[in-house]
Amino acid sequence: MPLSDEQVEPAGEPAPFELTLLGRAVASARGAARLTIRDLAARSGVEPSVLRDIEQARVDCDLKDLHAIAHALGIRFSQLIASGETGSAGGSGRA
Fold first, then answer.
1. Which one of 11, 23, 52, 69 is separated from 89 by 20 to 30 angstroms, measured CA to CA?
2. Is the pTM of the predicted complex or chain greater than 0.90?
3. Which residues of 15-40 are buried (b: 16+ CB within 10 A; e: fewer)?
4. Rounded to whole angstroms, how far apart are CA atoms 27 and 73?
């Protein structure tokens, strides 16, 4: 039996996603991997200027770039995304 509109709870607002925390997490994971921005750019295919902008929270990045960055850093994509909420991304785990 389908639920009526009155029986469905609204999903509510999504948790805020902090670009600053994501940028810090990318920079932290890059440092843990001992990579320069140029190294990460070469591994991920993301331009160095875009990586700088991501790390400094000056740009909203797309999922394709984030996936490439996570893979190049050797971490799971989900770890990088979750770091936008928690502010930490470790170098453990594989993409």
1. 11
2. no
3. eeebbebbbbbbbbbbeeeebebeeb
4. 10
